[in-house]
Design a protein that fits this description.
By secondary structure, the chain is an alpha+beta fold. Helix content is about 45%, strand content about 20%. The chain folds into 3 domains: about 50 residues; about 120 residues, no CATH class; about 100 residues, Endonuclease, Chain A. It contains 13 helices and 12 strands. A 4-stranded mixed β-sheet has the order 9-10-11-12. It has a 3-stranded antiparallel β-sheet with strand order 1-3-2, with helices on both faces. The chain has a 3-stranded mixed β-sheet with strand order 4-5-6, with helices on both faces.
Length: about 300
Amino acid sequence: MDALYAHAEAHHGVVSRREALALGLSNNQIDYRLRKGILRRAAPRVFILSGSPDSWHRRARIAALSLDGLVSHTAAAALHGIDGFGLRKIEISIGKDRRARGSRETVRRSTQLRFAEPVAIDALPVTGLTRTVLDLAGVLPYARFEWVVDAVLRQKLCEWHDLYEVLARHSIQGRNGCGPLRAILDARYGETNLPDSAFNRMVGKLLEDAGMPAVYEHEVRDEFGRFVGRVDLAYPSRRIAIELDSVRWHLNRESFERDPRRKNKLTLQGWTVLTFTWADYIDRPSELVRSVRSALEQAAA
């Protein structure tokens, strides 16, 4: 009983049946507390601790738990602390196959909820910061959205490369909001500002989302253990290396000549070397994924 009270009080007076069961209560014990008025039914499988005060947070948690969704869009922006947003409208994103019958809150269906990277803020399940920014791109006027991008960067809530990453991950299938975000990034962000390690991580995350996790910064050695080269991403068991090229790598003659020699050494060791540019990642992410998948399939044949 104490665990149920403690959990409910820490979560705005709201507890789901699943949470109550995880705390050790049986279905019969939950139903007994409902009959005694200790708990009140707020929605299917979601209850309120009697005497808990009404609040925006309580209503948001009831909606998120009952719909198996995440607080999103302008509501998530307020919870993340993005300037200019307050706790007004409650918006919940749910999977495309979920039903939202009877909900009094604003419900938005998503085919890519798996990319939402949820976080807990004030005991509420919320879409991750960059996903929230992308969601806002699909519902706000362009000028207002540009102000949002300024705000998250000014407040140091994320960096430019984080916005590029969320764009690439979602644009494989196409999505509302990708256009405005891409337009801002194309207009205001220079490639030379991108940290090299961030580019590697972004492509690696893209491949991981596609079910093809790679090894980062892999060292290739020959049959005598001698160092051949380090590659950005690799599938060692298939001898596939991925190199990520940027204009800045070839701003001097030394790197211009060194990179092809290193790739030749890898090829002579039996490695397949795939090279992708920033344009491949941001403009053609689906083609990048298909190329890697094809190389893996050929290596396994």
